[in-house]
Structure formats: C-alpha cells, structure tokens
C-alpha cells in the first residue's frame, strides 16, 4: 500500500493530502462518503464547535460524491462558470469523459473525449452549432436544468487553446491531467490554494506491526501571497482501498471539512486558520490522520510539490516487529516518472528514518523501503505503490502545491 499527500504548498499521494485555498452548508466538520463508516473528525483548534460557513461541502447521497452546496446552487441557477459547473456535474454523476462521449454519440453527436476535457478545463468552449447542441444534451445526461450550461457560455473566443493559469499549470506539470487530486477537487482544482504557499512541511508516517500504514501527521508552515487568505485544502490519497481514515485530529487550525471519496481512495480536508492573514503573514496548520488496518504492507511514502519549499522533513517510524531491511530516498520529476537521485538512508536504533531537504525543488519526493525474508518483518508487497492517487495533499494544486502519499 502506498499513500501520498497533495497540497499546493504541500500535497500527498498514495496516502497523502493536497491543499487548496477558499473551499467549502451543514454544521460542524464532517467526514462523509457513501458506503463507508464516518471517521471521527476531532477539530481541536479554536472554536471547534462553530458551524461551517455557507458553501461548505455537503454529500450527494445518491452518488457518494462530495459537492459544495454553492456548486449545487450554481448548477441550478447558472451562477458560476461553464467549466466549473460542467466539472462539478460530471463528478456528481460519476461519469467518465469516455462514457459521456459514448452517450453523446448515441444521440448522434460526435464529441471527442479530448474536446470534453478542454471544455471542463476552460481551455476551449462550445461555439459551433454541433457543439452547442451537445451542450443541450449534456444538460440532460448530467441531470441539470435546461440552460444551466448553455447560459454560462461567454462570447466567442479567439481560435486556439488557452494557457492554464500559472498555479494550475504548475500543478498539471507535476500531477498530469485527470489526476486523482484534480478529480477529488473538481472545479476547485483550478484555484487550488492560490492564496497561500508552503514554506516548511514536516511529515511523520507511522508503520504498524503488520507493516501497514497506521497513521500520518503533518505540520505545514504557510505564507499568504495576498491579503484575506483564511483556509487551506489538503488531499490525501491511498493506494490501498482497505486503508481508510478512521480518526482525524487538527491541533493547529480548525477542521471544517473531512470528506473521504472511496471511489478515488482520497481524503479531502479543509482547515481554516482562525483569522484572515495579511499579505506575507505566516500561519501553522497541523493535523493527524489514523488509518484503518490493511492487508497490504506499505512500501513507500511520497509528497509532491509544485513550488519550492524552504525545507521539507520526512520521517517514517517502523514498529519493532516490522523493521525494513533497506530504505532509500528518491525524487521524481513528476507523478509516474521513474525515480532518480536514489540514495540509501540508515535506520536508527529507535526504528525510524528521515530525510531533510532544504530548498526543496518542485517534483515528487519519497522514501521507499523493503522487507527482506527472515528479518522479522512482513513479506514484501509487490511494487511500491503508484504516485497518483493524490492530494495530498500534502497534496494537492494549492498555493505551493505539495502533497503526500503513503504506500
């Protein structure tokens, strides 16, 4: 099993978090997902019993997908952008672009997956007669009110593709298109944690007696790039579907949303700072997530970052009954790329390893380990887990763009 965190200032994948600024109405912090047991979300920062602000995540019970109430209102009234409403509706219905393209083809309208992807990313918009007819059929397929999408189309654009916003483009360079983090955040991915960036990130990963992931805790020092920043979003992704969050504790900040998306094996956390930051102000966010027992031993942990971190400290603590025979650090240029700069790291007599990186460059930073036969640890799992199940949080298109993923 692996995990990664994704955040804009810090993101994780495999099992990991991602951050995004200005997200998520019900009351109290919640962890929701159809078909799973609610995790115990325990906000311990200031005002833990305050109700959530309007616009916090609600759960669409029919699909089990998290969707903001503001997005639901936007879908009904057209009070949003065309790409945003389209992406939220696709997530809510749980339809892939391939399936939507097939449904359109069945109605006699040929629209490719690539075109649909460009529409939902805002890189192009429907303008020709056939495309406009496709939009009307999309409203039926996605169960939106008539005109909910068509009314959001602006004037004709100059021909050619538009360039994504800087922060979104940086995240796409690391995560690739249609990543788990992007799917988990939906329309929010485009503005993921744009108001803040991470300066320092400290991840602590705990491996249990069976060699599986037991928990993750993260401390993130953020700086506001503009006045008014008051929240951050993390996406934590798991490789193993049996590993689900069972307890969430926020010790610095106020937990507002905790939504586990079982289909994506990802946890979305929204944490408020407790105040609005002035430009260049810093704040500290700390949280911990306990994970349910899994059958597959963890073999790695990764965090991705889209921008430079001043410092990144990664620690992995092993149970005395599940000590690895070998540990090494590595870097990937992007999610899914081959590891490079691999180097062995020693296991201390207190059963932990650590990697401290100063001036941490954008990319994916990980620690992997192996269990040799006869060492008293579990049998080695096949592979080290994929890198993209983010969000991290740690990871996951935020200001800074970092995330983590345990594996």
Automatic annotation (TrEMBL):
Residues 8-29 have a biased composition (Low complexity). Residues 1-61, 371-407 are annotated as: Disordered. InterPro entries: Cro/C1-type_HTH. Residues 373-401 have a biased composition (Gly residues). This is Transcriptional regulator. It comes from Kitasatospora albolonga.
């Amino acid at each position: 099993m692996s995990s990664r965190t994704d955040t804009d200032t810090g993101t994780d994948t495999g099992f990991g978090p991602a951050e995004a600024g200005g997200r998520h109405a019900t009351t109290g912090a919640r962890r929701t997902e159809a078909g799973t047991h609610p995790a115990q979300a325990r906000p311990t920062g200031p005002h833990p019993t305050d109700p959530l602000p309007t616009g916090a995540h609600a759960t669409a019970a029919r699909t089990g997908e998290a969707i903001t109430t503001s997005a639901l209102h936007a879908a009904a009234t057209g009070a949003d952008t065309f790409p945003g409403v389209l992406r939220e509706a696709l997530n809510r219905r749980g339809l892939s672009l391939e399936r939507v393209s097939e449904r359109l083809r069945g109605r006699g309208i040929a629209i490719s997956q690539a075109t649909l992807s460009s529409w939902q990313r805002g890189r192009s918009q429907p303008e020709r007669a056939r495309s406009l007819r496709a939009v009307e059929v999309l409203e039926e397929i996605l169960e939106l009110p008539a005109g909910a999408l068509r009314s959001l189309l602006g004037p004709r654009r100059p021909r050619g593709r538009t360039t994504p916003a800087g922060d979104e483009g940086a995240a796409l360079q690391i995560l690739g298109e249609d990543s788990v983090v992007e799917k988990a955040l939906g329309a929010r991915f485009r503005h993921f944690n744009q108001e803040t960036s991470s300066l320092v990130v400290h991840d602590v990963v705990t491996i249990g007696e069976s060699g599986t992931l037991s928990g993750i805790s993260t401390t993130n020092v953020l700086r506001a790039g503009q006045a008014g920043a008051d929240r951050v979003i993390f996406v934590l992704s798991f490789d193993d579907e049996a590993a689900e969050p069972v307890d969430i504790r926020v010790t610095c900040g106020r937990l507002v949303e905790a939504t586990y998306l079982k289909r994506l094996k990802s946890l979305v956390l929204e944490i408020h700072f407790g105040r609005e930051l002035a430009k260049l102000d810093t704040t500290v966010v700390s949280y911990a997530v306990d994970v349910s027992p899994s059958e597959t031993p963890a073999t790695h942990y990764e965090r991705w970052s889209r921008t430079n971190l001043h410092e990144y400290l990664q620690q992995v603590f092993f149970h005395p009954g599940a000590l690895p025979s070998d540990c090494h650090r590595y870097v990937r240029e992007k999610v899914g790329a081959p590891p490079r700069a691999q180097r062995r790291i020693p296991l201390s007599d207190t059963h932990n390893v650590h990697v401290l990186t100063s001036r941490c460059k954008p990319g994916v930073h990980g620690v992997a380990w192996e269990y040799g036969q006869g060492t008293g640890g579990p049998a080695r799992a096949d592979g080290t887990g994929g890198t993209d199940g983010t969000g991290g949080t740690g990871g996951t298109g935020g200001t800074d763009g970092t995330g983590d993923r345990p594996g």
